[in-house]
Design brief:
single chain; 550 residues; mainly beta; Hemopexin; Lipocalin; 8-stranded mixed β-sheet; 4-stranded antiparallel β-sheet; 4 helices
Amino acid sequence: MDIFQKLEKGLRKIHRKKIDKNIFVPFIIFLEILVAQVDQRFDLFDWEIMRQNESINSISEGYQYVFFATNANGILRFNKFSRKFDSNIYLGQGIKSKEIKHVYFDKNTGILWIIGNEGLEFSNNRTGNWNDIEFQRLNVKSLRNIEDFGASRNFLWIKTNSRYIKLDHVSATFLGVFAYPDESNIDWGDINFSSNYEFNNFSLEDYFIEQGWLLSNKSASDNNGIFHNYKAFLKTQNGFSWIGLSNGQLLFIDDFSKTITPKDVGISVSVPLTISKGKKLWIAGINNNQYSSITSIDNNFSKVRNLLETNYSGFFRSDFYSSEYIDGEVWFGSDGKVIIYDERNDFFRTLGYEKGIPIQKIEFIKYFNDKVYIASYSELIVLDIKSKKIVDSQISDLIKKNNLFIDYLEVVENKLYIALDGRTYLFDENENINFDKFEYLVKDNFRVEGIYGYDESLFFSSKKGILNLRDNELIPSSLYFNFRVNDVLKLNNILYIGTSGGLAIYDLELKQLNNFYDFSFIRNIFKVELVGDFLVLLTSTGLIKLNLSK
């Protein structure tokens, strides 16, 4: 497939109509620019990615925003006028680098520059249409060789560990290598703590530090006594300052109130696997960092809070695979235990093997008929919601007696559906069993791997495809390239299918696939959820928000 075919295919996906190839002919001379720009299948901030920050490496002030370079979450943007964080700039906006070491806003040109693992990148509009230049063209070996980045009125300067590189401040054209810059009016932006900088003219003792933190000249200690090194410092023009920390947090310094406030930005889990909705969103998954954490986000995405294991006595080192919000409590399924967070009283407690919790990964937690159904792949227990004690269950007995494996568990309209060894069982609120209705699934070798219910609609997924039980229609897996289905969300007549290879959008009325999004930043989708006007995807690359209002 040539480049014109790829562009045509992309545009056809979003516009859903045939495009004449001839319209691309006048643009041949601009091919290099088109390739460098953001994928044409989506608008600039339709796709937003939230990840762990890991580290705040650099800070720069623009006209409207303060920009923060992170190790794994792109460029964070703090709106100086609303005093809120807006959508970050990352892979979904056309940036190639996953690790960004330096960010610099050149007020002489209005261009936003970054240096990341893929080279030097810049945008004239400070959001999209990114251009990139490889390190080789800059006479630089790798990102590790770059120490600082700045600009004068007419030029850009890159400081390496042994020399200075001069560039044109609009095109980034290479202009030479110098032992020392041939001009003195260079603005190097923020203060980089890698050069053993210590605060001198900025007295931290004059400020009240919130949330029990303690600060020194080189590091900050959180309320658990854990030290986080300073990475970058910037004093803005409107009376505020920022310190970026090695753990991905920020310290917001208000010169007017003389306060320093720690701020969480981005989710705290490396791979989000489960999400639950109450008054907030609760996101958990795999923690690759030193400590376990769970992230809560307001339903309007305005406030992020990361609940760290070190802050709570009943919260132990864990990865999480399932969750359920139950009347002010969030239940999280982990390895051989269930961790319960009491939102009202802000504390955790843990139920383990001694309480009858299965010793394997807790794959499912479902609230049904004032009971909590907790299941691993080979065992299911039922707890009374009030006493947290095990109660008798026909389902548990059925699984034990027949040595069945649990493929899926779901509650739909006050009925419990459970797939055991590919066969689907239906239980009412009294646990009366009925599986005759689904016997034809077995006859057709339709081994059920997922169950999804919405109003009067019920969907079963398998390797063959997705069965729409209401219309007795099979959506063949070939439509979404035979990827494994992990989750399904129905909105009106549209089915959003989260697969191991991307997001499929299927029109139930027209019985056709509208789109399949397989961008490199999506990858494996574990959960699909609607939050306001956003489709929220939990993926192997982080949390992704798709704006459905446009």
